TrEMBL record:
Keywords: ATP-binding, Nucleotide-binding, Transferase, Ubl conjugation pathway. PROSITE patterns: UBA, UBC_1, UBC_2. Residues 120-160 form the UBA domain. InterPro entries: UBA, UBA-like_sf, UBC, UBE2K_UBA, UBQ-conjugating_AS, UBQ-conjugating_enzyme/RWD. Residues 1-114 form the UBC core domain. Belongs to the ubiquitin-conjugating enzyme family. GO terms for molecular function: ATP binding; transferase activity. The lineage of its organism: Eukaryota, Metazoa, Chordata, Craniata, Vertebrata. This is E2 ubiquitin-conjugating enzyme.
Length: 160
């Protein structure tokens, strides 16, 4: 199996690392692709980086190439499919509160992918919980999954 580490730039300026594993049976079987950089997207696991994309599974055809995969991934990043999610919490936020989803995605892009600064309000909430001694990554996940409510995020952090 061959490995490729790829860095892609995604608006609004974040740099994301992808791990691509090309099996010995390629092109008859799809490559295994996952995000190494954390990302907040309904079709990408916020925990493992696994991608929910049909051509990486049952819709793969031997005529497809890595270029096809990257173009499909680019399209998925531009137009999420929340009804076929990899991450149900993110998909729920995407559908129930699109503006909060956008702000959360921008914050994750800033923190994990080096995109320009996002919401000062969200940054203050992160700083507040970090000042209580919680791990920054755990704080970001808790706040993101609890709709940026400090109280319920704190309860989640204390229960873990």
């Amino acid at each position: 199996m061959d490995y490729v580490l790829l860095c892609v730039v995604v608006p609004p300026g974040g740099r994301y690392q992808l791990e691509i594993k090309i099996p010995e049976t390629y092109p008859f079987n799809p490559p295994k692709v996952r995000f190494i950089t954390k990302i907040w997207h309904p079709n990408i696991s916020s925990v493992t980086g696994a991608i929910c994309l049909d051509i990486l599974k049952d819709q793969w055809a031997a005529a497809m190439t890595l270029r096809t995969v990257l173009l499909s991934l680019q399209a998925l990043l531009a137009a999420a499919e929340p009804d076929d999610p990899q991450d149900a919490v993110v998909a729920n936020q995407y559908k129930q509160n699109p503006e909060m989803f956008k702000q959360t995605a921008r914050l994750w892009a800033h923190v994990y992918a080096g995109a320009p600064v996002s919401s000062p309000e969200y940054t203050r909430k992160i700083d507040k919980l970090c000042a209580m001694g919680f791990d920054k990554n755990a704080v970001i996940v808790a706040l993101s999954s609890k709709s940026w409510d400090v109280e319920t995020a704190t309860e989640l952090l204390l229960s873990n």
